[in-house]
Amino acid sequence: MSLEVVGKLTKLLPIETGEKKDKSGTWKKQLFLLQTEEEYNNLYCFEVFGDDKVDKLSKFKEGEDIKVGFNVSTNEWKGRYFTSLSAWWIEKLVGEKTPSKAPMTKEGLEDFNDPNQDLPF
């Protein structure tokens, strides 16, 4: 699944490095924060992994409006689950404003108003 979000790059966190499991070299990753203009759930923490992606992220500055394409992935480790937002492309918005919220339409809302629908609560 691939998703997109538009917002302001608010913070670049320090680059993290480590040794590969097979001892064949090192890896590099960086996290960054993006804030949207949505009312709720408006802060995203993305990661980029690999030398090439970390180098490309360094071309962006805090405060810039950007558009991020990302994937959501979850990994299990010792019975615990960790979800990450992995950015795979970033685009600077030049001369564009962050889109405002789309108006709510009635399409797809009919099920919520059906009094005959059985709900578990």
Notes on the protein architecture:
The protein has 121 residues and is mainly β. The chain has a single domain, classed as Nucleic acid-binding proteins (OB fold (Dihydrolipoamide Acetyltransferase, E2P), Beta Barrel). It is built from one helix and six strands, in the order E-E-E-E-H-E-E. The longest helix is centred in the middle third of the chain and has 7 residues, at 51-57. It is globular, with a radius of gyration of 19 Å.
Labels describing this entry:
121 residues, OB fold (Dihydrolipoamide Acetyltransferase, E2P), 6 strands, globular, disordered C terminus
In short:
By secondary structure, the protein is mainly β. The protein contains one helix and six strands; from the N terminus they run E-E-E-E-H-E-E. A five-stranded mixed β-barrel has the order 1-3-4-6-5.
List the helices and strands and how they pair.
Elements: E1 3-12, E2 16-19, E3 26-35, E4 43-49, H1 51-57, E5 65-77, E6 80-92
Parallel strand pairs: 4-6
Antiparallel strand pairs: 1-3, 1-5, 2-3, 3-4, 5-6
**CATH architecture label name:** Beta Barrel
Strand order of the largest sheet: 1-3-4-6-5
Summarize the amount of helix as a percent range: under 10%
Overall SS class: mainly beta
What letter string, H or E per element, gives the SSE order?
EEEEHEE
Anisotropy-based shape: globular
Within CATH, the superfamily carries the name: Nucleic acid-binding proteins
> What's the total helix number?
1
First and last CA, distance: 31 Å
CATH topology: OB fold (Dihydrolipoamide Acetyltransferase, E2P)
The parts where pLDDT drops under 50 for at least 5 residues are: 98-114, 117-121
Main CATH class: Mainly Beta
Tally of strands: 6
The residue-averaged pLDDT reads 82
Total of domains: 1
Major sheet size, sense and barrel closure: 5 strands, mixed, barrel
Radius of gyration: 19 Å
Indicate the proportion of strand residues.
over 45%
